[in-house]
Design brief:
2 copies of one chain form a homodimer. By secondary structure, the first copy, chain A, is of the alpha/beta class. Chain A is about 35% helix and about 20% strand. Chain A folds into 2 domains: about 325 residues, Aminopeptidase (3-Layer(aba) Sandwich); about 130 residues, Alpha-Beta Plaits. Chain A is built from 18 helices and 20 strands. Chain A is globular. Chains A and B meet through strand 9, strand 10, helix 11, helix 14 and strand 11 of A and strand 9, strand 10, helix 11, helix 14 and strand 11 of B. Chains A, B: It holds the Pfam family Peptidase_M20. Chains A, B: It comes from Sphingomonas colocasiae.
């Protein structure tokens, strides 16, 4: 568990957490550490010359907030994504329709022998501007002590900043008059933040699928660095299902179909109590272990190698700082740090994201609600599948008589796994090592991304998230991405750009 | 269960419900039925002459919305209440401070032998203007088919309209040059809609208490009529406790103190699951019977007389119309109408008014919430008390290890009971009968009002809600109060005013 993982998890305290961690970073080393370790001086010069254009590229993109959950700027976001990759040298760029919001597909034929796939998202998470210290679409630059100059804006870290950093590498390579060492196949979706409900449709669109199958690996540019010279490589990710369980008088045929005066509870059934009773059958009394019938049937326990990787990662991070940053004091069952990290990656979860019923404002209101909703996310581990899990949850509820409780899945996908020995992973490891960054292998991300669509048939290609650069407060107020670093252990925009240049070349030599 | 009870319960469909019921009312009888049955022709003339002033009195009062839950216009509302009763002839009018919002006290010494107490509320329920068909403070007049001309506004029915109708009676008696047959003691609070948290303090303020103890009964003016010539007399009301149960990482010392990324569920406890587990210990699996330890210890079963009253009331109403108006199809346990009505009045309840945790907006958001809240109301029946119930709930949770789950009571009071043989009740019955209205005695209101503060020591005075007039959609959009009736079975403003005139005189002759 590295510090970058703190940031990945942290939603509210990230600024404080980053400042705290940054304050501990030594500033003794000379700046330019990454430049000394890398190569491609001509490309670096081009990247430096293009830095202001790169910053503007992020800024302009952030200004167009595509939010699938709010159906906001979606066609505009797809069109903008298409222009961005055309500008970076892609051809045959297409807006690919889905049942939901469209994807964007394109290829860049460098005449190379090998082909890398790229996965981008052009959507961003919802935001409440009132919670931000600067307007979320304005990309103001702010100095962070011990870190450098960061850009504040929705999507700067997740994922427009890191994605634009990859595009900056393509621009720099071209500006330096070099050819790309690999061909590229590009696929972006606009529904990542709502659980990628139509991503499989997108990836299996015939020409898209044909393109993806030519790739030896598919990479998502991400800011994977922490503040102490480590970068995480995930060998997989949990799957996820986001859903609502809804109990209502309408479907139940008992209790009121609408909110009525609460005195009627003495004679009418309550959909809210119905929901509570259905919910409590899903987990153990401590709320920590799913007890849905057959849930663990296909769960593959972590291997000894995977546990060893977790233990190794745990040794390179501070439990105390993690607890402080994430505002908690005890792990489940008071586990040790090491065991908690193993549990974190090993276990499937049934989590309550939200509860909504009846009156939710200040104080009370004497109503018997006609409808109650629990928003759940279920994290899946190999070899669970989304289809299996939804079916088992439905059957579990039905078996206990909760046939009336609606199960509305809004999105989700299977877990994903990529071998430690794939060329993609080996190139990632080698690039980080060359740049003096410690590659921190973890068996899987406890969170989720829809890489499973790539690793499973019919695509069946290894995936990985890669990139230096540093950002945080994803999904939270004051999301940020580091532009100019004053911390020699952390790459700013140009060094992060160069890491992609190194990676593209490393891939062909691995 | 009468039609007025439908309206009392109905929150959304009231307009439709009223129209539906009104459509069935015969219009064959001549208007002025109430005038023919009543007396006091000189006072009636004065009431008719003062009608426009009475309408304006309601309108101006509604324009000043005092909402305790929002701390809105509270001192202004108390001052306005004080002016209204001075204007109606009260003297020694005081604003009485409490720990919360102030009350208003005053007396009217008519030199009579007997004294009646009055309970008013000057606060109104919250509203969302967007849900209304006309601005909630504008008091627009609208024609309702089969009913007449109604005034639409927040507080018109609950309770400014009925209260102003009583004040109109005092104005009319004075205008006719008559003396009041009884002395009056007046007490108003501004916190009825938040569960009267400081009403006991108000009622036991020494001079207020002394005034109340002089009364032979305390009456709350209310629109108690239905559309078919019945008026309900409640011989009591359930008590209520409004509270929040809060599970949080902060208090629990487990799970996060703030919202964190939901992937952490695999290693962190969940306050939301904690809440669900605590909640489900409170009721039977069907959600219908409280199973809090010792809950029924002091519950007095309904007497045979009380059950007989309920059965009698049930015979005068339509189950089908009730189900339609309140949007449900089955009573608890598929009870018969009669048994459902007995259960309605007999049973204490533990009701979920609202659930709030984590993300409550559209779609999902992958967070593990640091805090989860259930808003509950508990209805109490004789001889439960608020103090007993809060203590038992706390003990129940503690015994099951939920010591960390906060129990925050926002308001509430004990049940209340008034004898069928009190002079107050007898005068109510006699007044209705004289006016040709069928008095519909019910053992108790399934809802609540803080009458228990009056019926219990140290006040120990019978209470009752009384009044003709017709209104509805209390707590709901388009709350209304009938001004000019075209339905001979339903009293408009002047006839409802005259019902109070009759009642005041009936009280001294009963």
């Amino acid at each position: 568990m590295t510090r970058s993982t703190i940031d990945q998890f942290n939603r509210r305290d990230l600024i404080r957490g980053a400042a705290m961690l940054g304050a501990g970073a030594a500033l003794a080393s000379p700046f330019g550490a990454f430049a000394q370790k890398g190569g491609f001086d001509d490309v670096r010069k081009a990247a430096e010359a293009g830095k202001e254009a790169s910053v503007k590229r992020i800024r302009d993109w952030v200004a167009l907030d595509s939010i699938a959950a709010e159906n906001r700027n979606m066609p505009e976001g797809a069109a903008y994504m298409a222009e961005l990759i055309k500008d970076a040298g892609f051809s045959g760029v297409q807006i690919v329709p889905t049942k939901g919001h469209p994807g964007v597909f394109g290829t860049l034929d460098a005449g190379a022998k090998r082909t890398l796939g790229l996965y981008f998202m052009y959507d961003v998470k919802q935001y409440d501007a009132a919670e931000w210290t600067s307007p979320p679409l304005d990309c103001r630059m702010v100095d962070r002590k011990g870190l450098g100059s960061v850009m504040i804006g929705r999507g700067t870290a997740n994922h427009k900043g890191p994605e634009a950093t990859f595009l900056a590498a393509l621009h720099a390579i071209r500006a330096a008059g070099r050819k790309l060492p690999v061909n590229l196949v590009f696929l972006a979706e606009g529904e990542e933040e709502i659980g990628s409900p139509n991503f499989r449709q997108l990836a299996t669109t015939p020409n898209v699928l044909a393109g993806l199958k030519r790739c030896e690996g598919i990479m998502m540019p991400t800011a994977m660095a922490d503040l102490e010279g480590n970068a995480t490589i995930e060998l997989g990710a949990k799957g996820i299902i986001e859903l609502e369980l809804v109990a209502s008088g309408e479907k139940w045929g008992r209790g009121p179909r609408k909110d009525v005066h609460s005195s009627l509870k003495a004679a009418l059934d309550s959909p809210a109590w119905r929901l509570v009773q259905a919910l409590q059958t899903l987990v153990s009394p401590d709320g920590n272990t799913p007890v849905i019938d057959g849930w663990f049937e296909n769960v593959r326990p972590l291997t000894d190698r995977e546990k060893a990787l977790i233990r190794e990662a745990t040794r390179h991070s501070s439990e105390a700082q993690l607890k402080e940053a994430l505002s908690f004091t005890h792990w489940i069952d008071n586990l040790s740090y090491e065991d908690a990290m193993i549990r974190l990656m090993q276990e499937p979860t049934v989590n309550i994201e939200g509860l909504v019923a009846g009156y939710t404002g200040p104080g009370g209101k004497t109503i018997l609600p006609g409808r109650a909703v629990a928003k759940l996310d279920l994290r899946l581990v190999p070899n669970q599948t989304r289809t299996e899990a939804v079916g088992k949850l439905r059957a579990h509820l039905d078996k206990r008589g909760f046939n009336d409780v609606e199960l509305n899945v809004s999105g989700g996908y299977d877990p994903t796994e990529t071998s430690e020995t794939s060329s993609l992973t080996r190139a990632e490891v080698a690039t980080y090592r060359k740049l003096g960054v410690r590659p921190n292998l973890t068996p899987r991300l406890a969170g989720s991304w829809p890489g499973g669509t790539f690793t499973q048939p019919p695509v069946s290609v290894p995936v990985g998230r890669f990139g230096l650069g540093y950002g945080g407060a994803a999904h939270a107020p004051d999301e940020f991405y580091l532009i100019d670093s004053v911390n020699p252990k952390v790459a700013g925009l140009v060094d992060a750009t160069m890491a992609h240049v190194e990676f593209l070349h490393m891939l062909v030599s691995t």
